[in-house]
Predict the 3D structure of the following.
Amino acid sequence: MKILFYDCKSYDKSSFEKELKNYPGIEIKFLKTDLTPNTAELSHGFDAVCAFVNSDIGTRTVEILHENNVKLILMRCAGFNNIDLNTTKQYGIRILRVPGYSPEAVAEHAMALALTVNRRLHKAYVKVRENDFSLGSLMGFNFYQKTAGIVGTGKIGAAMANICRGFGMKVLAYDVFENPSLKDFVTYVSLDELLAESDLVSLHCPLMDSTYHLINRETIQKMKDGVILVNTSRGALVKTDDLIEGIRARKFFGVGLDVYEEETPNVFEDRSDEILEHSVTARLLSFPNVMITSHQGFFTEEALAAIAQTTLENAKTFEYGKETSNEVK
Ligand code: NAD
């Protein structure tokens, strides 16, 4: 089976090449360019294409893949909102994805952000490099015996709840479904109660109509003063303008964001030589108690290995004509 791999970064190539040894029937050609209507033509002679979150797999791309006789799209991520599913269905192109890879990778990053803004590590790093060994502005607070509020207790939220428990925190949670694996130490409460009680609020629910701008002026007002907010889920869970207003009103002790609205043109790109048109990121970064990373929560060796393994297993499953729950229907 021949796979054309789009939008390849050096770390993708090494994780897939390591795993490929176990799949002798699969051959991969790695391309740096992403899958778009302009690059879909390159798929001629391949059985499958492998794409990622920002690939443009709209109608025209799918039509070209069909003309080139491509029968399979392998998404090396969980999301598939960038695919025109009506057209893939029409042409019988199957889509297999990686629904989960390493929840601990994202949860550990959420705690890293929480600790960074709490203990001002982002400031301490710069200060010490400048031979400024004073402690001014670096004081944090203990997480021990404080309250963590986990919004969404699926795979990642559950991992975060366990980490917070390890810090000796009381753990509250809000979800539309309770996770039975957490019943020994997590107390499920209403969202309002969680916001009112928590010293650390960490978001782990998916972005849907019901969760769009879940954190807004009204819900921010319900939070404790001096709260730490962490978002490693999806940017649009938080209404950025209201967050900025809350930061200016001194509501937050700290804010840690791995995702934020308007991140799409930035994600995984080096834009250090550019003058950015939008100022929202710059405005957020201007606050001393805000730490932003660029969607790197998933980025660990273990997660990349799991993504490569599941993607290649998906390809094998397709080749043998088998069913899998990783298929997007
Ligand atoms: P999951 O499906 O296992 O868990 C999601 C949980 O959210 C479920 O328990 C669900 O019941 C709950 N939920 C649904 N609607 C809700 C609502 N209105 N209020 C509260 N909870 C609600 O998903 P997961 O694997 O834990 O991933 C969570 C999110 O993390 C994903 O949706 C994705 O956006 C994000 N993510 C980020 C990265 C990263 O690199 N930063 C990587 C992977 C996933």
Observations:
- The longest strand covers residues 252-257.
